[in-house]
Design goal:
alpha/beta, 5 strands, globular
Length: 184
């Protein structure tokens, strides 16, 4: 049985279980119980999470909502684009380093849209993810394009997290995308 690890923020936590159910015939899907929050938190936590998880055959990760937020009302993103890019590169490199698998297949999931004004740069941050993916030999699971056209129905009343319809759509997309890689 293949081992798939999902890492990331609370959006990942929403879709992890339904992705595992959809891939149960070919893979065991796991991830930390903890919210990965922002990219720097994911990077720092790899050394703690990975030894506690199965040795992966595939890892998908995401981070972005916390990074672009302005939670302290400083008039800037929590992680400005240049820091976000550097941190995302380091996540890719360290995933392979910590697992001891230099050819480990990596998938970076794009950040889903929200209704928060400080997230207006989601496309910029997703372009950074695409750039990092190209340069770090990772693939991109475009969750943004799944949710954005149906944002009113797929983003919940808290203006950030997915509704049940959003969770199902993102889980279906993710499971199909990961299955395609696992079956190569």
């Amino acid at each position: 049985m293949k081992q798939v690890i999902l890492l990331g923020d609370s959006i990942r936590m929403q879709y992890q279980k339904p992705v595992g159910e959809r891939l149960a015939d070919i893979a065991e899907v796991s991830g930390p119980e903890e919210n990965g929050r922002w990219s720097g938190y994911v990077l720092n936590s790899l050394r703690f999470w990975l030894p506690q998880l199965p040795s992966p055959d595939l890892v998908q990760w995401n981070a972005g909502l916390w990074d672009m937020g302005d939670d302290y009302h400083e008039g800037r993103h929590f992680y400005p684009p240049e820091l976000y890019e550097e941190t995302c590169r380091r996540i890719c490199r360290n995933l392979r380093k910590v697992t001891g698998k230099p050819e480990l297949p990596l998938v970076i999931a794009t950040t889903t849209p929200s209704f928060y004004e400080d997230h207006k740069d989601v496309q910029l941050y997703n372009e950074i993810l695409r750039k990092v993916a190209r340069e770090e030999n990772a693939e991109v699971n475009d969750l943004y394009s799944v949710v954005a056209p149906h944002k009113e129905e797929m983003v919940g009343p808290d203006r950030l997290h997915l509704t049940p319809e959003g969770i199902e759509a993102v889980a279906e997309q993710t499971a199909a995308f990961l299955r395609g890689i696992l079956e190569r």
